Amino acid sequence: MLRVLAFVFLCFAVPAMAQDAQEPPGALSSIFLVAQKGSRDPFFRDAVVLVTHRIGPTPIGVIINRPTGITVEKAIPDSGVASLKSELVYFGGPVSAEQVIVVFRAKNPPPLSVEVMEGVYMTMDRDAIRSLLARKLSPKDIRFFAGYAGWGFGQLEAEVARGGWVLVRADAATLFERKGDGLWQDLHRKGSAKQARAGAAETLAAR
């Protein structure tokens, strides 16, 4: 558990406390939060959340495995991109559910986009989203969300300490290529196994 909390601390606490300092190269910027089995929160039951500290002073994220059934064409009527019109918008979280958030891959991101992983960006800005739509990106390089999840100072660390989440390092392949059923199960299994090994190592080290 100590290693898990240290992982959260590296992802969120250090950048939050040192906003004026340059972030060290290779610093962790995003993780997948994987809900524990039996979560009672209907918003996060069986959820996988891409979480970053780079948007503001506290972490925010989007749920990546909950399709809404609403297409991009309906959510953004002036989208005008045939290849993306039928793409589904995913429920990103309970905060500002009317807000469209886009996560995408690009070599030259538009202004007001924030890098959340190497080469992967997030934006909530309407002009930036229009700019992205005009580029006619592949559906494999862009995802759309309605709303987001947010935490207050220390809230996420407390939830992790209580065992509410399994943590898995975020990667672009999972984000853009694994949208269907089975994502939560696979990441929960992967993250739980790693945390179990870390816990066993800590127990042995304490002897």
UniProtKB/TrEMBL annotation:
Give the UniProt entry's GO cellular component terms. Answer: cytosol
Q: Which SUPFAM superfamilies match?
A: VC0467-like (SSF143456)
What keywords sit in the KW lines?
Signal
What residues form the membrane-spanning segments? none
Cleavable signal peptide: 1-18
Instruction: Please name the InterPro entries in this protein's record.
Output: AlgH-like
Which family is this sequence assigned to?
Belongs to the UPF0301 (AlgH) family.
Q: What is this protein called?
A: Transcriptional regulator
